[in-house]
Design brief:
six-stranded mixed sheet, globular, alpha/beta, five-stranded mixed sheet, D-Maltodextrin-Binding Protein, domain 2, single chain
Length: 300
């Protein structure tokens, strides 16, 4: 695929970020577009362009945001932004998390005083980092941590990031494989505008083949009245229709104090007869119901 035809996909961070790995793993020959944060990914998807785009830039067709990490669990900001914005989930991709400690050439483990990274990465390398009395400082992105050290020429400082991001920043790896869980990984979701699909020729694995091999997930968001048994009534609908639920999360509704919405991942496509019946019944027992999307399940 030529550069002019390559899909432009927004992600949070800088080149070398795990989110960029997700873009490359999901799309065929993409042009990843870095933006400062998760909210900017949503803004870029809805606007079709990033803030720094040239006027004649090709449109941004999709974005990727992390949704869950094997060690740290749910990425709550992504859930809140999904609820806040009118987008659809078109797919998911799982990226291995390999972390290293890197610094400017000439530094050693003994000379390091400060360690920078995203709070999630610091947590994922907690066992290694606790061995020394380093000052741990959070930044918005793992790759940005390495880039800022390199740009400032900051001595006695190191970053927790991927080996690829360390190489891109010109940093020297002091310790590799420092993640507490060796097979740690992060799941990202691929989002688009609701009226925009993704052509199969843009993707590394055609959706039909991916769904046939791994199944389909439908993500629902629902609100219930603050009364006894209301959530149970929703779960009973799914059980009655033979629909398997494999994830249930609650988040504040952001509308009223102490009220919550529930995120539900279930097996199956929203267009399937059993799911269509379930959605109709759920509308009768919920105060709010939204289908975020049906999409092929990624490798775990």
């Amino acid at each position: 695929m030529s550069g002019a035809e390559a899909p432009r996909v927004a992600y949070s961070g800088e080149p070398g970020a795990f989110a960029e790995d997700a873009v490359v793993a999901f799309f065929f020959g993409p042009r990843p577009v870095p933006v400062p944060g998760f909210r900017e990914v949503f803004d870029a998807v809805l606007a079709g362009r990033a803030g720094a785009d040239a006027p004649d830039a090709a449109p941004i067709i999709a974005g990727v945001v992390p949704i869950e990490n094997l060690v740290n669990g749910t990425v709550r900001e992504s859930y809140d932004l999904l609820l806040e914005h009118d987008v659809a989930i078109r797919g998911e991709v799982v990226v291995p998390v390999q972390l290293c400690l890197a610094a400017l050439p000439g530094e050693t483990i003994e000379t390091i005083e400060r360690v920078y990274s995203h709070i999630q990465a610091l947590g994922q390398a907690d066992r290694f980092l606790r061995r020394r009395s380093w000052q741990l400082l959070t930044v918005y992105n793992t790759s940005a941590a390495g880039r800022s050290i390199a740009d400032r020429g900051e001595r006695a400082a190191a970053a927790v990031l991927s080996p690829r991001a360390a190489a891109l920043a010109g940093l020297h790896i002091l310790a590799d494989g420092i993640q507490t869980v060796p097979d740690n990984r992060t799941k990202f979701v691929v989002i688009t505008r609701p009226d925009a699909g993704l052509s199969s020729d843009l993707l590394r694995v055609p959706p039909a083949r991916q769904a046939a091999a791994r199944g389909t997930t439908t993500t629902l968001v629902l609100g219930v009245r603050n009364e006894p048994g209301t959530l149970m009534a929703c779960l009973a609908v799914l059980a009655d229709e033979g629909i398997n639920m494999h994830k249930l999360e609650s988040r504040p509704s952001l509308k009223r104090a102490w009220e919550y919405v529930f995120w539900v991942d279930v097996d199956g496509d929203a267009a399937a007869p059993a799911m269509a019946r379930a959605l109709g019944r759920l509308a009768d027992v919920t105060s709010f119901l939204r289908v975020l999307g049906s999409y092929p399940r990624a490798d775990a």
